Amino acid sequence: xxxxxLTGGGDCPGLNAVIRAVVRKGISTYGHEFVGFRDGWxxxxxxxxxxxxxxxxxxxxxxxxxILGSSRTNPFKIDGGVERIKANLADQGVDxxxxxxxxxxxxxxxxxxxxxxxxxxxPKTIDxxxxxTDYTFGFDTAVNxxxxxxxxxxxxxxxxxxxxxxxxxxxxxxxIALHSGMAxxxxxxxxxxxxxxxxxxAEYVDKRFETQYAxxxxxxxxxxxxxxxxxxxxxxxxxxxxxxxGGIGQWLAEQIEKRTGKEARTVVLGHxxxxxxxxxxxxxxATRFGLQAIDAAHDGDFGKMVALRGTxxxxxxxxxxxxxxxxxxxxxxxxxxxxxx
Length: 341
Ligand code: F6P
Known about the structure:
341 residues, glycolysis, binds 6-O-phosphono-beta-D-fructofuranose, cytoplasm, 4-stranded parallel β-sheet, Rossmann fold, Phosphofructokinase_dom, magnesium, Pyrophosphate--fructose 6-phosphate 1-phosphotransferase
């Protein structure tokens, strides 16, 4: 069998570990051949390929990013896109495709599967918000990076008697904020799932200043205050209509400073959370996803996505990947709230 592999959407530590596992097992156990498609769905759309064999995956396990490149190209938004993909897959003699990506990439994979393309999906996102799997690789790495930043910010905040607001990624789900904030001992954690009251945040900050410690506020980029409290100045949107990083963190620091009379600074971690080497947890999860994905392709079990359920790697219908966004439940937030202030 000749199998195409692509990575789509925002990059994520562990993508290379999936590619390596797919190729290593695909060649050594099953004798399949591979072709890499470059830059997500743009690869099969424009016929952009690169060789993918044992030499190409050597040494990539600890490397962040993706050797195949990525993009947010959606062939369903391009005239004749699907036909071009089918023609290019046929040109390349590709029998099956393994698509590694988040909601958007897997959404395309699910629609293509319905149209008869042989696809297997592998879920990835640092946001950990895909409903069909207990965890996605990349999340643990992002949380550890954010936790280390918070640890470092505690000491500088204390030295200067300042509040430090740490803005982490998470537009729709606050998993990174919740986990890094809990692990890093934040004094307040703000998530997109629950509107916050800026007066209450300022009270927590004030309370913290009563001890020898300085407050650390962790905020997910998608968090917003209760209605009427926020006027974001200079809010810029990117080409996809998303609020640019730095919006809410900056606003919070200004408001906290105004209410407490003490200096506040903002640190926007941004894409640092997506870069560099994956943690051991993410390398193992990504490798196990890759092994299951190549098994599914070999079995001809198409239209499926691999997923973690408990400690098992299972196959679920691709359609499930995009069915439900997994947000932080209120009970999980309540656990963190015990430590606020
Ligand atoms: O979905 C992953 C993610 O890193 C989000 O946490 C973040 O909101 C978004 O991608 C940023 O996208 P981009 O890299 O396109 O700016």
